[in-house]
Write a structure and sequence with these properties.
326 residues, alpha/beta, Rossmann fold, four-stranded parallel beta sheet, 11 strands, 18% strand, binds 6-O-phosphono-beta-D-fructofuranose, ATP-dependent 6-phosphofructokinase, metal-binding, ATP-binding, cytoplasm, glycolysis
Protein backbone atom coordinates (compact mmCIF):
# COMPACT_ATOMS: atom_id res chain seq x y z
CA UNK A 1 0.00 0.00 0.00
CA UNK A 2 1.46 3.37 -1.05
CA UNK A 3 1.03 6.29 1.32
CA UNK A 4 -0.72 8.89 -0.87
CA UNK A 5 -1.86 12.01 0.96
CA UNK A 6 -3.08 14.41 -1.69
CA UNK A 7 -4.38 13.55 -5.18
CA UNK A 8 -4.49 16.22 -7.87
CA UNK A 9 -7.32 15.75 -10.39
CA UNK A 10 -7.71 17.50 -13.74
CA UNK A 11 -9.49 17.25 -17.10
CA UNK A 12 -7.69 17.96 -20.35
CA UNK A 13 -8.32 17.98 -24.12
CA UNK A 14 -11.87 17.91 -25.50
CA UNK A 15 -14.59 17.79 -22.86
CA UNK A 16 -16.88 14.76 -22.69
CA UNK A 17 -20.18 14.11 -20.90
CA UNK A 18 -19.44 12.14 -17.74
CA UNK A 19 -16.22 13.95 -16.87
CA UNK A 20 -18.01 15.53 -13.90
CA UNK A 21 -19.20 12.12 -12.71
CA UNK A 22 -15.56 10.97 -12.89
CA UNK A 23 -14.30 13.98 -10.90
CA UNK A 24 -16.99 13.33 -8.30
CA UNK A 25 -15.99 9.68 -8.01
CA UNK A 26 -12.31 10.56 -7.54
CA UNK A 27 -13.10 13.12 -4.83
CA UNK A 28 -15.58 10.93 -2.94
CA UNK A 29 -13.43 7.77 -3.15
CA UNK A 30 -10.38 9.70 -1.96
CA UNK A 31 -12.37 11.03 1.00
CA UNK A 32 -13.51 7.50 1.76
CA UNK A 33 -9.83 6.50 2.09
CA UNK A 34 -8.87 9.65 4.03
CA UNK A 35 -6.92 11.21 1.13
CA UNK A 36 -7.11 14.93 0.30
CA UNK A 37 -7.95 16.11 -3.21
CA UNK A 38 -6.67 19.15 -5.08
CA UNK A 39 -8.64 20.32 -8.10
CA UNK A 40 -6.48 21.60 -10.96
CA UNK A 41 -8.26 23.98 -13.36
CA UNK A 42 -7.78 23.94 -17.15
CA UNK A 43 -5.63 20.82 -17.38
CA UNK A 44 -1.86 21.08 -17.86
CA UNK A 45 -2.17 24.81 -18.43
CA UNK A 46 -3.59 25.35 -14.93
CA UNK A 47 -1.03 22.94 -13.49
CA UNK A 48 1.83 25.10 -14.76
CA UNK A 49 0.16 28.23 -13.49
CA UNK A 50 -0.68 26.78 -10.06
CA UNK A 51 -4.43 27.18 -10.56
CA UNK A 52 -5.25 24.77 -7.71
CA UNK A 53 -7.99 24.56 -5.09
CA UNK A 54 -8.87 22.16 -2.31
CA UNK A 55 -11.86 19.97 -3.05
CA UNK A 56 -14.26 18.50 -0.54
CA UNK A 57 -17.50 16.55 -0.49
CA UNK A 58 -19.49 19.67 -1.38
CA UNK A 59 -17.31 20.68 -4.34
CA UNK A 60 -18.75 17.73 -6.23
CA UNK A 61 -22.36 17.88 -5.00
CA UNK A 62 -24.97 17.95 -7.72
CA UNK A 63 -22.59 17.52 -10.66
CA UNK A 64 -23.06 13.86 -11.62
CA UNK A 65 -25.80 14.84 -14.08
CA UNK A 66 -24.00 17.82 -15.62
CA UNK A 67 -22.23 17.84 -18.99
CA UNK A 68 -18.89 19.58 -19.56
CA UNK A 69 -16.33 19.70 -16.76
CA UNK A 70 -16.41 21.82 -13.61
CA UNK A 71 -12.59 21.79 -13.66
CA UNK A 72 -12.60 23.33 -17.17
CA UNK A 73 -10.28 22.03 -19.83
CA UNK A 74 -7.63 23.29 -22.21
CA UNK A 75 -5.01 22.19 -24.68
CA UNK A 76 -1.55 23.32 -23.56
CA UNK A 77 1.53 23.81 -25.76
CA UNK A 78 3.71 24.81 -22.82
CA UNK A 79 3.46 21.31 -21.29
CA UNK A 80 5.08 19.89 -24.43
CA UNK A 81 8.34 21.60 -23.40
CA UNK A 82 10.69 20.38 -20.61
CA UNK A 83 10.49 23.86 -19.07
CA UNK A 84 6.68 23.73 -19.00
CA UNK A 85 6.70 20.32 -17.29
CA UNK A 86 9.30 21.51 -14.75
CA UNK A 87 7.01 24.45 -13.84
CA UNK A 88 4.10 22.06 -13.43
CA UNK A 89 6.10 19.73 -11.18
CA UNK A 90 7.25 22.63 -9.00
CA UNK A 91 3.64 23.74 -8.57
CA UNK A 92 2.62 20.22 -7.51
CA UNK A 93 5.43 20.03 -4.95
CA UNK A 94 4.58 23.51 -3.62
CA UNK A 95 0.95 22.47 -3.17
CA UNK A 96 1.91 19.09 -1.64
CA UNK A 97 0.17 17.09 -4.39
CA UNK A 98 1.77 13.65 -4.43
CA UNK A 99 -0.29 11.79 -7.09
CA UNK A 100 -2.39 12.68 -10.14
CA UNK A 101 -5.56 11.51 -11.87
CA UNK A 102 -5.66 12.75 -15.47
CA UNK A 103 -9.04 12.61 -17.23
CA UNK A 104 -8.90 12.89 -21.03
CA UNK A 105 -7.90 11.23 -24.27
CA UNK A 106 -4.74 10.46 -26.21
CA UNK A 107 -3.22 13.96 -25.95
CA UNK A 108 -3.76 13.95 -22.18
CA UNK A 109 -2.11 10.55 -21.77
CA UNK A 110 0.79 11.44 -24.07
CA UNK A 111 1.57 14.32 -21.69
CA UNK A 112 1.04 12.13 -18.62
CA UNK A 113 3.36 9.44 -19.96
CA UNK A 114 6.24 11.89 -20.51
CA UNK A 115 5.63 13.61 -17.18
CA UNK A 116 5.49 10.31 -15.28
CA UNK A 117 8.81 9.24 -16.79
CA UNK A 118 10.55 12.52 -15.97
CA UNK A 119 9.31 13.07 -12.43
CA UNK A 120 8.74 10.76 -9.52
CA UNK A 121 5.00 11.24 -9.19
CA UNK A 122 2.43 8.49 -9.76
CA UNK A 123 -0.07 9.36 -12.49
CA UNK A 124 -3.09 7.31 -13.56
CA UNK A 125 -5.60 8.22 -16.25
CA UNK A 126 -9.34 7.93 -16.89
CA UNK A 127 -10.56 7.58 -20.49
CA UNK A 128 -12.58 10.74 -21.11
CA UNK A 129 -13.34 11.37 -24.78
CA UNK A 130 -16.40 11.02 -26.97
CA UNK A 131 -14.29 9.39 -29.70
CA UNK A 132 -13.86 5.97 -27.99
CA UNK A 133 -10.43 5.73 -29.62
CA UNK A 134 -8.39 4.30 -26.73
CA UNK A 135 -7.24 0.75 -26.16
CA UNK A 136 -7.81 -0.72 -22.70
CA UNK A 137 -11.48 0.03 -22.22
CA UNK A 138 -14.56 -1.16 -24.08
CA UNK A 139 -15.99 2.33 -23.97
CA UNK A 140 -14.65 5.77 -23.07
CA UNK A 141 -16.50 8.19 -20.81
CA UNK A 142 -18.73 10.36 -23.05
CA UNK A 143 -19.02 8.00 -26.02
CA UNK A 144 -22.42 6.58 -25.07
CA UNK A 145 -23.94 10.04 -24.52
CA UNK A 146 -22.46 11.33 -27.78
CA UNK A 147 -23.78 8.47 -29.90
CA UNK A 148 -27.23 8.89 -28.36
CA UNK A 149 -27.09 12.60 -29.23
CA UNK A 150 -26.19 11.68 -32.81
CA UNK A 151 -28.98 9.09 -33.06
CA UNK A 152 -31.50 11.62 -31.77
CA UNK A 153 -30.33 14.23 -34.30
CA UNK A 154 -30.24 11.82 -37.25
CA UNK A 155 -33.74 10.52 -36.41
CA UNK A 156 -34.93 14.12 -36.71
CA UNK A 157 -33.04 14.60 -39.96
CA UNK A 158 -34.67 11.39 -41.21
CA UNK A 159 -38.12 12.96 -40.71
CA UNK A 160 -37.32 15.86 -42.99
CA UNK A 161 -35.39 13.62 -45.43
CA UNK A 162 -38.46 11.38 -45.70
CA UNK A 163 -40.86 14.28 -46.15
CA UNK A 164 -38.82 15.81 -48.99
CA UNK A 165 -37.47 12.59 -50.54
CA UNK A 166 -33.93 13.78 -49.82
CA UNK A 167 -30.47 12.36 -49.39
CA UNK A 168 -28.64 13.71 -46.34
CA UNK A 169 -24.90 13.58 -45.82
CA UNK A 170 -24.40 13.86 -42.04
CA UNK A 171 -20.94 14.52 -40.61
CA UNK A 172 -20.19 13.29 -37.11
CA UNK A 173 -17.11 13.80 -34.91
CA UNK A 174 -14.08 11.54 -34.87
CA UNK A 175 -10.86 13.18 -35.97
CA UNK A 176 -8.97 9.88 -36.22
CA UNK A 177 -11.71 7.37 -35.61
CA UNK A 178 -14.92 6.17 -37.23
CA UNK A 179 -16.37 4.57 -34.10
CA UNK A 180 -19.06 7.24 -33.63
CA UNK A 181 -20.03 6.96 -37.32
CA UNK A 182 -20.07 3.17 -37.30
CA UNK A 183 -22.37 2.65 -34.33
CA UNK A 184 -24.71 5.53 -35.19
CA UNK A 185 -24.81 4.37 -38.81
CA UNK A 186 -26.19 1.03 -37.67
CA UNK A 187 -28.57 2.60 -35.15
CA UNK A 188 -30.08 5.05 -37.63
CA UNK A 189 -30.33 2.65 -40.57
CA UNK A 190 -27.89 4.68 -42.66
CA UNK A 191 -27.47 3.82 -46.32
CA UNK A 192 -23.69 3.98 -46.02
CA UNK A 193 -20.92 5.17 -43.72
CA UNK A 194 -17.56 6.69 -44.59
CA UNK A 195 -14.89 6.18 -41.94
CA UNK A 196 -11.10 6.52 -41.92
CA UNK A 197 -10.58 2.84 -41.06
CA UNK A 198 -12.35 1.40 -44.09
CA UNK A 199 -11.80 1.97 -47.76
CA UNK A 200 -15.39 2.33 -49.00
CA UNK A 201 -14.21 5.30 -51.04
CA UNK A 202 -16.25 7.42 -53.38
CA UNK A 203 -16.72 4.61 -55.89
CA UNK A 204 -18.02 2.35 -53.12
CA UNK A 205 -20.47 5.02 -52.03
CA UNK A 206 -21.64 5.68 -55.59
CA UNK A 207 -22.17 1.95 -56.09
CA UNK A 208 -24.25 1.70 -52.96
CA UNK A 209 -26.39 4.63 -54.06
CA UNK A 210 -26.64 3.43 -57.65
CA UNK A 211 -27.42 -0.22 -56.99
CA UNK A 212 -29.40 0.20 -53.79
CA UNK A 213 -33.18 -0.10 -53.80
CA UNK A 214 -34.70 2.43 -56.15
CA UNK A 215 -37.93 2.95 -54.26
CA UNK A 216 -36.27 4.48 -51.19
CA UNK A 217 -37.75 7.80 -50.24
CA UNK A 218 -34.97 8.99 -47.93
CA UNK A 219 -31.29 8.23 -47.67
CA UNK A 220 -28.76 8.94 -44.94
CA UNK A 221 -24.99 8.74 -45.36
CA UNK A 222 -22.88 9.19 -42.21
CA UNK A 223 -19.38 10.59 -42.68
CA UNK A 224 -16.79 10.59 -39.89
CA UNK A 225 -14.94 13.90 -39.57
CA UNK A 226 -11.61 12.11 -40.07
CA UNK A 227 -12.63 10.31 -43.26
CA UNK A 228 -10.40 11.27 -46.18
CA UNK A 229 -12.59 10.03 -49.04
CA UNK A 230 -13.16 13.52 -50.38
CA UNK A 231 -12.26 16.01 -47.66
CA UNK A 232 -15.36 16.29 -45.49
CA UNK A 233 -19.12 16.10 -45.84
CA UNK A 234 -19.47 19.20 -48.03
CA UNK A 235 -17.15 17.79 -50.66
CA UNK A 236 -18.81 14.36 -50.48
CA UNK A 237 -22.18 16.10 -50.89
CA UNK A 238 -20.96 18.10 -53.89
CA UNK A 239 -19.63 15.00 -55.65
CA UNK A 240 -22.77 12.98 -54.91
CA UNK A 241 -24.92 15.79 -56.29
CA UNK A 242 -22.74 15.93 -59.41
CA UNK A 243 -23.00 12.17 -59.96
CA UNK A 244 -26.69 11.91 -59.08
CA UNK A 245 -28.32 15.20 -60.13
CA UNK A 246 -31.76 13.63 -59.62
CA UNK A 247 -31.13 13.32 -55.84
CA UNK A 248 -32.08 16.29 -53.72
CA UNK A 249 -28.97 16.31 -51.51
CA UNK A 250 -28.40 18.21 -48.25
CA UNK A 251 -25.47 18.34 -45.84
CA UNK A 252 -25.63 18.51 -42.07
CA UNK A 253 -22.59 18.84 -39.76
CA UNK A 254 -23.57 17.91 -36.22
CA UNK A 255 -20.45 19.43 -34.61
CA UNK A 256 -20.05 20.23 -30.94
CA UNK A 257 -23.57 19.35 -29.84
CA UNK A 258 -22.06 15.85 -29.71
CA UNK A 259 -19.80 16.91 -26.84
CA UNK A 260 -22.46 18.50 -24.61
CA UNK A 261 -25.47 17.51 -22.57
CA UNK A 262 -26.27 15.43 -19.53
CA UNK A 263 -24.33 12.15 -19.46
CA UNK A 264 -26.27 8.95 -20.08
CA UNK A 265 -26.73 6.43 -17.28
CA UNK A 266 -24.06 4.26 -18.86
CA UNK A 267 -21.50 7.09 -18.88
CA UNK A 268 -22.30 8.02 -15.27
CA UNK A 269 -21.81 4.46 -14.07
CA UNK A 270 -18.64 3.97 -16.13
CA UNK A 271 -17.19 7.26 -14.82
CA UNK A 272 -18.10 6.39 -11.24
CA UNK A 273 -16.54 2.94 -11.42
CA UNK A 274 -13.25 3.95 -13.07
CA UNK A 275 -13.03 7.14 -10.96
CA UNK A 276 -13.15 5.19 -7.69
CA UNK A 277 -10.84 2.51 -9.15
CA UNK A 278 -8.26 5.21 -10.00
CA UNK A 279 -7.96 6.17 -6.33
CA UNK A 280 -7.63 2.52 -5.33
CA UNK A 281 -5.05 1.97 -8.08
CA UNK A 282 -2.89 4.82 -6.75
CA UNK A 283 -3.12 3.36 -3.24
CA UNK A 284 -2.05 0.00 -4.64
CA UNK A 285 1.03 1.51 -6.29
CA UNK A 286 -0.15 1.71 -9.92
CA UNK A 287 1.36 4.45 -12.09
CA UNK A 288 1.49 5.41 -15.78
CA UNK A 289 -1.66 3.44 -16.51
CA UNK A 290 -5.14 4.16 -17.79
CA UNK A 291 -7.99 2.67 -15.78
CA UNK A 292 -10.70 1.29 -18.06
CA UNK A 293 -13.48 -1.25 -18.06
CA UNK A 294 -13.26 -4.42 -20.17
CA UNK A 295 -16.14 -6.92 -20.08
CA UNK A 296 -17.39 -5.28 -16.90
CA UNK A 297 -14.04 -5.63 -15.07
CA UNK A 298 -11.59 -2.88 -14.14
CA UNK A 299 -8.57 -3.02 -16.47
CA UNK A 300 -5.14 -1.34 -16.22
CA UNK A 301 -3.38 -0.40 -19.45
CA UNK A 302 -0.01 1.37 -19.74
CA UNK A 303 -0.47 4.86 -21.25
CA UNK A 304 1.75 4.09 -24.21
CA UNK A 305 -0.39 1.09 -25.15
CA UNK A 306 -3.69 2.92 -24.59
CA UNK A 307 -2.78 5.73 -26.99
CA UNK A 308 -0.75 3.92 -29.61
CA UNK A 309 -3.19 1.37 -30.81
CA UNK A 310 -6.63 1.62 -32.31
CA UNK A 311 -9.16 -0.76 -30.77
CA UNK A 312 -10.02 -1.75 -34.34
CA UNK A 313 -13.18 -1.85 -36.36
CA UNK A 314 -15.11 -5.08 -36.48
CA UNK A 315 -15.61 -5.80 -40.21
CA UNK A 316 -18.91 -7.51 -39.33
CA UNK A 317 -20.24 -4.16 -38.12
CA UNK A 318 -19.39 -2.55 -41.47
CA UNK A 319 -21.06 -5.45 -43.26
CA UNK A 320 -24.11 -4.97 -41.03
CA UNK A 321 -24.61 -1.39 -42.28
CA UNK A 322 -24.67 -2.70 -45.84
CA UNK A 323 -26.77 -5.76 -45.14
CA UNK A 324 -29.50 -4.01 -43.18
CA UNK A 325 -29.93 -0.88 -45.27
CA UNK A 326 -31.18 -2.81 -48.32
O1 LIG B 1 -13.05 15.19 -28.33
C1 LIG B 1 -12.52 14.70 -29.52
C2 LIG B 1 -13.04 15.50 -30.65
O2 LIG B 1 -14.41 15.46 -30.51
C3 LIG B 1 -12.67 15.09 -32.06
O3 LIG B 1 -13.49 14.11 -32.62
C4 LIG B 1 -12.72 16.40 -32.79
O4 LIG B 1 -11.97 16.41 -33.93
C5 LIG B 1 -12.17 17.33 -31.78
O5 LIG B 1 -12.60 16.82 -30.53
C6 LIG B 1 -12.54 18.76 -31.96
O6 LIG B 1 -12.20 19.44 -30.80
P1 LIG B 1 -12.03 21.01 -30.65
O7 LIG B 1 -13.08 21.66 -31.47
O8 LIG B 1 -12.20 21.24 -29.19
O9 LIG B 1 -10.66 21.33 -31.11
Amino acid sequence: MTQIKNIGVFTSGGDAPGMNAAIRAVVRAAMYYGIEVTGIRRGYDGMGKGDFFTMNRKSVSNIIQRGGTILKTARCDDFRTPEGRKNAYEQLVKNKVDALVAIGGDGTFTGAKVFGSEYDIPVVGLPGTIDNDLVGTDFTIGYDTAINTVVDAVDKIRDTAESHDRLFIVEVMGRDSGLIALRTGIATGAEAILIPESKTGLEGLFNRLEFGRKDKTSRIVIVAEGDDTAGGAFEVGRLVQEKFPNYDTRISILGHIQRGGAPSCMDRVLASRVGAAAVEALRDGHRNEMIGLINGEIAYTPFEHAIKHHQGIDPNMIKLVEMLSM
